[in-house]
Design goal:
The chain is α+β, with helices and mostly antiparallel strands. The protein is built from 16 helices and 14 strands.
Length: 417
């Protein structure tokens, strides 16, 4: 034990004697970890915003539906009234820090017609009292208003659809779709409002109508699906697993947003891969800086290490002194980098970074409108991963100098001037 304390003391003494080199090396490591934390928190914040934007367009973080519905989108594969009640009970029973928000939906493919033409559309019946808290669409209104409680024959459509059919707020149009009975049914509606998401596919095809209207028009008692909004996307897998156990016996399928939004999930995976590629490059730079600093320190202290060997330290213990120097340097720089990283994120970027001046207004990501304001989000698992990787790199980069120090010949080392 006493000998171990001596080795640690020698390592600290060596770092103190080469204070400038030690400070510069620690500063490089701390700056690398600071940049890593800033980059990771910005990426996590952006990813969470993209997920939130995607799931609020209708699918939710978790979706309950009858088996086969996601493949065919047919009213034949719908949830009955009893299954809908089972689903809502399962959602209410999930273990979450704040309640989940379920939204029952009746969705069908159909045709929207006006005197100026007809276009294929996706018609979704929603609860006007729930949707403003669930979806971002009510906030994207450019003309008129969103659906309100008590509306019966109103519709909320996109700007591209309104332009192609020459519709405005207050205009009438006819929606046509196949009902539960198999008959083609038409429904006259009046445009309550028009929205713009900057995603052409949605602005041209998505229509919201009151849930009660969709049910009476199409003959649906339950719903085609129930979308559930969670407090955070990290709860998706636990809720899917927990809810599946509850509703499996009722013949209900439960899936998370990566399944219902595969394009968004693939885009996020691709972006995350790019982030980690940047981080690997940053790690390599930090590792080279550590390796260079400690290795040069060993080369400049050959005579001193030879004297230590002559005074009784073994080659293993001499190498261990150098290795402890690397560990202490890494630990100190890691703490400083983490503190500095969180300080920079909190004091300078907690309100986000606005990139609106660097990109067009209609940019989208994975089929989702891109928010140009990136707000950092601190995901502790990623912070811990970054700290562990930094520590591993620091410890690994110290191995070669320590091995070199352990193999020094005492007789030859003391001759070095």
């Amino acid at each position: 034990m006493a000998r171990s304390r001596t080795l640690v003391w020698l390592a600290l003494r060596n770092l103190g004697r080469e204070l400038r080199r030690s400070t510069l090396t620690a500063a490089a490591m701390a700056l690398g970890l600071t940049l890593l934390i800033l980059s990771r928190t910005l990426a996590d914040g952006a990813h969470e915003d993209w997920i939130d934007s995607g799931v609020r367009l209708g699918s939710g973080h978790v979706t309950f539906n009858a088996p086969g519905y996601r493949d065919g989108r047919s009213l034949d594969d719908r949830l009955s009234a009893a299954q809908l009640e089972t689903t809502l009970a399962a959602v209410a029973g999930t273990t979450l820090p704040s309640p989940a928000l379920p939204s029952a939906r009746v969705a069908v493919r159909g045709l929207a017609s006006s005197p100026d033409g007809a276009l294929p559309v996706s018609i979704v019946g929603v609860d006007p009292t729930v949707e403003p808290a669930f979806s971002r669409l009510p906030d994207e209104v450019v003309e008129g208003r969103y659906l309100a409680d008590g509306d019966r024959l109103q519709a909320y459509i996109g700007t591209s659809l309104a332009g192609r059919l020459d519709l405005g707020a207050g205009s009438r149009m006819v929606l046509t779709a196949q009902s539960v009975s198999g008959d083609i049914e038409g429904q006259l509606v009046r445009v309550a409002g028009i929205f713009r998401t900057n995603v052409e596919a949605l602005d041209e095809s998505l229509i919201h109508i009151p849930l009660a209207t969709a049910r009476s028009w199409l003959g649906v008692e339950g719903a085609t699906s129930v979308a559930v909004l969670l407090p955070h996307s990290s709860f998706t897998d636990p809720v899917v697993e927990e809810a599946s156990e509850t509703v499996r016996a009722a013949g209900i399928e439960v899936v998370g947003w990566p399944v219902t939004n595969p394009d968004l999930y693939a885009a996020l995976q691709l972006d995350d891969g790019g982030d980690w590629a940047f981080h690997v490059i940053l790690f390599i730079i930090v590792a080279i800086a550590i390796l260079n600093a400690i290795f040069m320190s060993v080369l400049h202290r050959k005579r001193e290490m030879g004297l230590l060997r002559a005074l009784g330290l073994s080659g293993r213990e001499t190498g261990l002194v150098v290795y402890i120097e690397g560990i202490l340097l890494t630990a100190g720089a890691g703490v400083a980098g983490a503190v500095l990283g969180f300080a920079v994120v909190w004091f300078f970027f907690r309100d986000g970074i606005d990139f609106s001046g660097m990109m067009p207004d209609d940019i989208n990501f994975g089929g989702i409108a891109f928010d140009p304001v990136m707000v950092p989000s601190i995901e502790m698992k990623h912070v811990v991963q970054s700290a562990i990787l930094t520590a591993l790199i620091g410890v690994s980069a110290s191995l070669l100098p320590a091995w070199h120090a352990a193999r020094l010949d005492p007789a030859e080392s003391v001759k070095v001037e």
